């Protein structure tokens, strides 16, 4: 796989540059690698939860479908959060909000300092 570009000078680098990502995906596609073979096998069924009667094939398939659907939903939620974080990373919204918080903190410190002077004077 490709490695991310190192920072040169004062330029900010993108953690996942599109060109590198597309190149990596193209390499994976061309490599004839079965990615499913790299995944760990499914969780073993616990004997404590198993009943004495064998489950019907429809019930087992339904449970697998539910597990797959839950996994897909978690993956989609993670993707949404990652995209939102990357969008936020490349905007100045965080810096602006941080500057606003610092400004408010300085004002509040001045107010507290002023209140401390008033109580000492009386």
TrEMBL record:
Residue ranges of the region described as Disordered: 38-72, 95-122
Feature: compositional bias, Low complexity: 38-58
Protein's UniProt name: Uncharacterized protein
Origin species: Trametes coccinea (strain BRFM310) (Pycnoporus coccineus)
